[in-house]
């Protein structure tokens, strides 16, 4: 019999608690990722990539990231009845153990597909897809009770697409909001009106400054801290900064220095780790450091969702840090930053989940 998965919330669970830790809704794509290119191809040019991977993407990035960290995850999404849909459903339900009871398969609906090309810290994507056959609230019905809901802010959302969020909040869930890049360049501040009753908001620095009409990430952070209890601004290689008014904490952490292969899904991994730390009542600086670690582990692999680290990967990383020689001032600083892992890693079994190869084929091209 396989060992039970590591449960980071085990000590906090009690009879009558929600059976779902994280509830998500969104569109799932089949992602095909090319990596190992020295540059983007020019017009009419064909380049050969050193690596290729296939995995569920879109909302699946966040769902896999939370599930890998031991959070009981439920995802509501539309899946086609094509081979792409079969692969995504099977990967999420059977390999990642994500609850799909509120998801649906739709006959003659084409599962969306995205092709992503990663070069250094940049990526470019081409997507084909169609609007989901049913609105989010219709598809999901009454949402299961959950500890947290993770969702994206969108300009002028339809009532039928957001009613389920209010229901989940009324059931006691904490709302964690993200936001995407506004290709129109409008960056309408009215979008932030949806933060009403949200617990957390986690934009990157570009998004935060654009929506708040501020000039620095710090100014944007303070503006957002007036809107939500937990305001977090991620700033790429500069790290992350946050204010948690519910605990009276403020923290800034640097990014870890790693070689990035594919940044796809790194923001989702950061948000998943932050959500776990919040649900587990960790100190703010520990939450930010843990989120920075998880996202840094993710970008060292390619494949979006399936590059998200599990507790086995985290334990392996910490054991390697502790086993290293005294080393440089930077190495010593990293060990000090993550000393809180000493309280977690001993409880992680050797069989704890580790990241999977991102491939639709029988053998990985990684």
Key attributes of the depicted protein:
366 residues, eight-stranded mixed β-sheet, 30% helix, disordered C terminus, globular, alpha/beta
Architecture overview:
This protein is α/β, with parallel strands linked by helices and 366 residues long. Helix content is 30%, strand content 21%. The chain has helices at residues 59-68, 83-95, 136-140, 159-170, 205-212, 217-225, 266-279, 284-299, 311-323, 329-337, and strands at residues 20-25, 28-35, 51-58, 73-76, 78-80, 104-106, 113-119, 122-128, 146-153, 174-179, 200-201, 230-234, 240-244, 249-253. It has an 8-stranded mixed sheet with strand order 4-1-9-10-11-12-13-14, with helices on both faces. Helix 2 (83-95) links the parallel strand 5 (78-80) and strand 6 (104-106). The longest helix is centred in the C-terminal third of the chain and has 16 residues, at 284-299. The two termini are 30 Å apart.
């Amino acid at each position: 019999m396989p060992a039970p998965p590591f449960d980071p919330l085990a000590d906090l669970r009690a009879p009558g608690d929600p059976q779902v830790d994280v509830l998500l809704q969104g569109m799932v794509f089949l992602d095909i990722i090319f990596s190992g290119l020295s540059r983007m191809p020019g017009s009419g040019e064909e380049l050969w990539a050193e690596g290729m991977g296939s995995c569920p993407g879109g909302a699946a990035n966040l769902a896999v990231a939370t599930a890998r960290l031991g959070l009981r995850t439920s995802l509501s999404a539309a899946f086609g009845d094509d081979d792409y849909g079969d692969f995504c459903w099977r990967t999420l339900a059977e390999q990642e153990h994500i609850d799909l009871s509120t998801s649906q398969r739709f006959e003659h609906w084409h599962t969306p597909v995205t092709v992503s090309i990663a070069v250094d810290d940049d990526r470019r994507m081409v997507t084909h897809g169609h609007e989901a056959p049913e609105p989010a609230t219709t598809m999901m019905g009454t949402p299961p009770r959950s500890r947290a809901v993770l969702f994206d802010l969108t300009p002028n959302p339809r009532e039928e697409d957001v009613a389920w969020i209010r229901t989940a909040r009324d059931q006691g869930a904490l709302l964690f909001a993200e936001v995407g890049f506004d290709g129109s360049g409008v960056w309408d501040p009215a979008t932030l009106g949806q933060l009403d009753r949200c617990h957390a908001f986690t934009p990157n620095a570009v998004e935060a400054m654009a929506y708040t009409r501020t000039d620095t990430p710090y100014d944007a952070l303070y503006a957002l801290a007036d809107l939500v209890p937990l305001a977090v601004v991620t700033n790429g290689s500069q790290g992350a900064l946050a204010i948690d008014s519910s605990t009276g904490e403020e923290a800034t952490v640097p990014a870890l220095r790693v070689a990035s292969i594919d940044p796809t899904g790194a923001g989702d991994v950061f948000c998943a780790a932050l959500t776990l730390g919040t649900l587990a009542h960790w100190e703010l600086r520990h939450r930010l450091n843990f989120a920075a670690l998880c996202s840094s582990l993710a970008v060292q692999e390619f494949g979006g969702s399936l590059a998200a680290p599990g507790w086995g990967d985290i334990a392996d990383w910490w054991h390697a840090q502790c086993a290293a020689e005294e080393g440089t001032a930077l190495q010593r600083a990293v060990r000090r930053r993550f000393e809180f892992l000493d309280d977690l890693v001993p409880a992680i079994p050797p069989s704890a989940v580790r990241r999977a190869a991102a491939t639709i084929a029988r053998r990985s091209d990684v």
